[in-house]
């Protein structure tokens, strides 16, 4: 079985050269993530252009996801070397963004002295170092190291989101957003979303005219407002790093499952992220616990799995992608497709703009799943201008491969995130009948289906249809 769960890999200093990008694409990278929390905007734009160029040279669609940093509080750089913090040592935190040391950590948040209280516990670097605030006075906080560890670069400093007096997205986010929209970016992740209002503030055109907006669930407020966020966003990311700091650690596994289930019920792709193969930053193979984490994220129903530092700064990014590819593919083979689809069949698709169209598409994709399952059909051709039909089909997790065909190039790029979907760019033939003929020909010519094989086809009755209201079963000539 071909791997169905998609892989998102972060591009950084270790993976930004053309050779490594080619190796990562060959290894199974479906979406390349560019994080804007590190480096300059110009560097990020260069990475974007290089990824796009290599993808075109390789002749395969690779989506590009730009991750806006949002109101993330970070320590100033520790320089070229890593710095170790020892348990029970004391450190001072001050406002600044010049340089951090093992005795004074500068933090790039003006509200530090007002919003952090004595007795607070601060996670730094996704919990690699944990600090206890023991005193505050003047322009600095005095903290004691509860849990020691090694920090490098510009690690995040977690301050409870409900105390931060910073909006999402930030002014600098909007500057970066404008630059990447002009370049035609496929997807944009919004950090520290607290409600649907934060998504609406982005103000981009709906996808596919604009980028697919991905809401990162990493605050307690986002969990509480999850239904509205799912209804407004194009996709969701379970950002377990900051979410694990906002919520107690024992809550996190349950929250992951809950968020994923609600996303799939709502027809939204969902990415599970953070520390999935973290040890592979420096090691050639993952821990047994990491392998189980990847597999369980697949069993939970994740549309995609994300690699962060493993590919951005790791010693062998392509090997990390190959490793995740193997684990995810094996987990896909063991996934309980029948139980999943039967359970999902009781849920109704939600869509924020076309409730009637959503109901029709929901019914048609359910019918396609039942037909494919009952007849043993191995290929479903989903013709869609916006990708909505394809995403609706993908949520049923059919045994059949989904071929998402669209005449819209950006839709094709955005479908790289959708579970089990091979996106294909086709010509706009105008009539429904011509689009169906083209889809069947593409399936045959690209070996998605053999001559004589029956395929399922989902499409609109005409090019004005807002929903998939035609399901056909055809034999490939």
Task: Give a structural overview.
This protein has 477 residues and is an alpha/beta fold. The chain folds into three domains: 6-69 and 169-333, Phosphoenolpyruvate-binding domains (TIM Barrel, Alpha-Beta Barrel); 83-163, PK beta-barrel domain-like (M1 Pyruvate Kinase, Domain 3); 339-475, Pyruvate kinase, C-terminal domain (Pyruvate Kinase, Chain: A, domain 1), CATH 3.40.1380. It has 17 helices and 20 strands. Helix 10 (288-300) links the parallel strand 14 (270-273) and strand 15 (304-307).
Which helices and strands, and how do they pair?
Layout: E1 6-10, H1 18-27, E2 31-35, H2 41-58, E3 63-67, E4 83-85, E5 90-95, E6 104-107, H3 112-115, E7 121-124, E8 129-137, E9 140-147, E10 149-151, H4 171-183, E11 187-190, H5 196-200, E12 212-217, H6 220-224, H7 226-232, E13 235-239, H8 240-246, H9 252-265, E14 270-273, H10 288-300, E15 304-307, H11 309-312, H12 317-334, H13 337-344, H14 355-375, E16 379-383, H15 388-394, E17 401-406, H16 409-414, E18 421-425, H17 432-445, E19 454-459, E20 470-475
Parallel strand pairs: 1-2, 1-15, 2-3, 3-11, 5-6, 11-12, 12-13, 13-14, 14-15, 16-17, 16-19, 17-18
Antiparallel strand pairs: 4-10, 5-9, 7-8, 8-9, 19-20
Helix pairs in contact: 1-2, 1-12, 10-12, 14-15
């Amino acid at each position: 079985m071909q791997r169905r769960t998609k892989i998102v890999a972060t591009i950084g200093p270790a993976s930004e050269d053309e050779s490594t990008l080619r190796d990562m694409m060959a290894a199974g990278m479906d979406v390349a993530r560019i994080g804007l929390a590190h480096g300059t905007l110009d560097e990020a734009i260069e990475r974007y252009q290089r990824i796009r160029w290599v993808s075109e040279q390789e002749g395969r669609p690779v989506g590009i996801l730009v991750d806006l940093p949002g109101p993330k509080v970070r320590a100033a750089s520790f320089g070229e070397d890593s710095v170790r913090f020892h348990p029970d040592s004391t450190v001072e935190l001050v406002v600044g963004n010049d340089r951090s040391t093992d005795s004074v950590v500068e933090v790039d948040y003006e509200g530090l002295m007002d919003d952090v209280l004595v007795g607070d516990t601060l996670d730094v670097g996704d919990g690699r170092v944990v600090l206890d605030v023991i005193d505050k006075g003047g322009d600095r906080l005095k903290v004691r190291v509860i849990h020691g560890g090694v920090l490098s670069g510009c690690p995040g400093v977690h301050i409870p989101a409900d105390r931060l007096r910073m909006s999402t997205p930030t002014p600098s986010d909007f500057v970066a957003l404008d630059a990447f929209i002009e370049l035609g970016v496929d997807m944009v992740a919004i950090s520290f979303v607290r409600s649907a209002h934060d998504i609406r503030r982005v103000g981009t055109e709906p996808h596919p005219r604009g980028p697919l907006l991905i809401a990162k669930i990493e605050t307690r407020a986002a969990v509480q407002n999850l239904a509205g966020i799912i209804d407004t966003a194009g996709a969701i990311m379970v950002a377990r790093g900051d979410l694990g700091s906002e919520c107690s650690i024992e809550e996190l596994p349950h929250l992951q499952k809950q968020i994923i289930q609600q996303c799939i019920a709502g027809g939204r792709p969902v990415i599970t992220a953070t520390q999935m193969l973290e040890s592979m930053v420096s090691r050639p193979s993952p821990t047994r616990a990491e392998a189980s984490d990847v597999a369980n994220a697949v069993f939970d129903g994740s549309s995609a799995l994300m690699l962060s530092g493993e590919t951005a700064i790791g010693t062998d990014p392509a090997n990390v992608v190959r490793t995740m590819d193997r684990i995810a593919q094996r987990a896909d083979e063991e996934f309980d497709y029948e139980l999943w689809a039967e359970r999902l069949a009781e849920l109704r698709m939600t869509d924020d703009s076309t409730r009637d169209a959503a109901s029709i598409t929901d019914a048609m994709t359910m019918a396609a799943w039942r037909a494919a399952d009952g007849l043993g059909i191995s290929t479903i051709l989903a013709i869609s201008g916006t990708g909505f039909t394809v995403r609706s089909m993908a949520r049923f997790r059919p045994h059949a491969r989904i071929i998402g065909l669209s005449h819209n190039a950006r839709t094709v790029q955005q479908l790289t995130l959708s579970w089990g979907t091979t996106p294909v760019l086709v010509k706009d033939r105008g009539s429904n009948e011509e689009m169906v003929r083209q889809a069947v020909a593409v399936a045959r010519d690209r070996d998605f289906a053999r001559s004589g094989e029956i395929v399922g086809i989902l499409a609109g009755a005409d090019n004005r249809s807002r929903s998939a209201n035609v399901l056909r079963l055809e034999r490939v000539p």
